[in-house]
UniProtKB/TrEMBL annotation:
This is Alpha-1,4 glucan phosphorylase. Allosteric enzyme that catalyzes the rate-limiting step in glycogen catabolism, the phosphorolytic cleavage of glycogen to produce glucose-1-phosphate, and plays a central role in maintaining cellular and organismal glucose homeostasis. Belongs to the glycogen phosphorylase family. InterPro entries: Glycg_phsphrylas, Glyco_trans_35, Pyridoxal_P_attach_site. Its cofactor is pyridoxal 5'-phosphate. Keywords: Carbohydrate metabolism, Glycogen metabolism, Glycosyltransferase, Phosphoprotein, Pyridoxal phosphate, Transferase. NCBIfam families: P_ylase. Pfam families: Phosphorylase. PROSITE patterns: PHOSPHORYLASE. It is an enzyme of class 2 (transferase). It catalyses: [(1->4)-alpha-D-glucosyl](n) + phosphate = [(1->4)-alpha-D-glucosyl](n-1) + alpha-D-glucose 1-phosphate. It comes from Koribacter versatilis (strain Ellin345).
Amino acid sequence: MDKTDIWSENMSNTPVTAQPSNDAHTLLKQYGCGPIPFSGTDNAFYERHFVFDKVLDKRESTARDQFEAFARSVRDVLSQRWVLTEQIYGRQNAKRIYYVSMEFLIGRSLANNVTNLLLDPLIQDSLKQKKLDWIELIEQEPDAGLGNGGLGRLAACFLDSMATLQLAAMGYGLRYEYGIFKQSINDGWQEETADNWLRHPDPWEVARPNEAVEIKLNCSFELHNGVLRAIPGRPSTMIGIPYDRPVVGYGGKTVNTLRLWAASAADYFDFREFSGGDFVGALAETLTAETLTRVLYPDDSTSFGQALRLVQEYFLAACSVADLIRRFRKHNSDWNLLPEKVAVQLNDTHPALTVPELMRVLLDEANLGWETAWDLTRRTLAYTNHTLLPEAMEKWPVAWFELMLPRHLQIMLEINQRHLDAVRTKFPGENERCTRMSLLEEGSPKKLRMANLAIVGSHSTNGVAALHSQLLRTTTLKDFGEMFPDRFNNKTNGVTPRRWLLLANPALARNITEAIGDGWIRDLDQLIKLKPLAEDCAFLAAIRKSKYQAKSEFANWLLRTSGVKLDPDTIFDSQVKRIHEYKRQLLNALRIVVLYNRLRQNPELAMAPRTFLFAGKAAPAYHFAKLVIKFINNLAGTIEGDPVVRGRLRVVFLPDYSVSMAEHLIPATEVSNQISTAGYEASGTSNMKFMMNGALTIGTRDGATIEMAEAAGEENFFLFGLTADQVSQNRTWYSPRWHYENEPETRAALELIFSNHFSRHEPNVFEPFRQLLLDKGDYYMHLADLGSYLAADQQLTALYKITDAWASKAVLNVAHAGRFSSDRTIAEYAADIWDAKPCPVS
């Protein structure tokens, strides 16, 4: 079945009602959702967009023109509901949730919006009338360049769930002109080019220049010899222009908003300066403003890139605070109602400057006293931490605040003084504790710690998986856990089943709906009804068929889009995520080298044919991660060129990983690698998507994988390696050379790499692996876990030969995936942190 059949197979025009889950409080009481009429079946409704938007005859239109017209037709359908949603929130003066994030990895919007609006049969009729190819149509839409990895995709799933649960919510982010970058591979190396995803008009966004916000800095900028530099003491102003995108809840009743801020220069333009010949000086401010939201995460290997990122973060915080205060004041005159009407969730430390910005507004504009302003700020804000890596918790030089944001620096220093007074009162004489808990990090230069600021300035700090939250409270942020024990809590991540199962995997979704009904779409806990079917031979056969279909469709898509040919009769074994040492793509590659060596030494060895799929981007300045990508590609080329193993092992690196690619790859995957060093992955969400789509996990006891294995049973996972406690305890004595000297397969794999077998024309290019793994102590313990990884891999391939047993475990994984819905996560946020109730749009 093609993905175009998703609506007729999996969705109906009747209201969908689901029962509340046991662990998500009263928010999961579901509301019936019926279809919205789609006038698009009238050709004039569609064709008017060619005439009135493009001034174009339909017969002269391109595929891109057709996509824009069709998408605008769908937007026409949801627009009235979008307006009504905002009207009802205002009319009821509902408590509003504002989710502030530097990333929203939303992917494509057309198919997702059609799915959530329940427009399936009418859309299919419209496609037939207009003789449009659905696949060609949706592939005209680029993935929105608004995020990079799990942090941004989580934010997108959360927006979907907030709208589906009918919460009065809004996302705040930045409208990046070029996203992060497009990744290509040249001679095995990652190359980055601009991702100009906005080169065509985006049919979903609506500019709101009448709601623009002025943002002031205490300095301005000028170009000097081609270099942009700050001018102290000369204040400047930037303008934040909001662009709104619809967020459609499943069933189409609630249409929330993702508001993205674009930076623009202030309206003032010194014509006399310009006409007098100082073109560079007159245009420097414009250049600065336009640069601000040009790319996601500027290269932070330079001080200019770091400073630009800081200004980006302040711009996001200041625009968002101004906007939410405007909305609050529209319906409330009493400032004391702020925490009762507004809940702000800071997604990691990037929006931490919301703390001093909200304090500034309350102190300087509302003229409240310090104690009142601080109480309101703290009760309004909440903070989600996404990392256990101390180096990933942002710190910014104090000197930069002195230059650009002196008032915010004053506020943060006052917060710090009062905070440390409280620490000294609770822990008298513990000066080292004060040093660790201070917002200021002493040194040269002095820096401000954003994680400390976010914790102190909010009423809630949550981790995103049980292990992560425990380690935050007891290790990484132990001092704060002891100071504020009631503020720490866990909210295990989740993913939306609408995009990641219903939309991405129609064959499996059809199997599920035929077996248990379609209530699972809104209440994923209903998947548990599949558990008895893990012993049903007919259902197992259907599951195997749907998996093979997903593999074939992925292979066809990849051949069509990139020319790479895959064999769906091989095991599809995937690791897709940001390239980083702790995520250990290198460990996966070492496993493949060992398997390759086994076949070279014994070509008659029985081994199921396998395709190893890698995808993910490395930060442009992260040279080691880029070397890992190079090694994976060289490994792929060497294996492909070796007649002994060709056809039995295949390695493929898929460049430019995106949401759209994931929607094809994840349903096709049979083996999900979640192999981070235990204690370093906060949660993971790809692990949940793979589980939901019937892949079996080979992985470490890390992040949310622990909870997934607890839910489905460890016997249905292939777990290996050191635990987080063992990693911590082994730090003092771990010797990677012991494994090198005492494990023959480990030694042979490394010697093959060091012998330039995979780099014949680039001798010693992989020498940094020797330094990392042997000379520098192998910090992320690749060699410590390699042996047990291989043992788990052997168990996995043995089970794969028993088709019913494999399919049974796949069914049990799907059946226990209900807990990992983002609906459950958001219901817990709303009940435990935001104190927010649904606001139905009738």
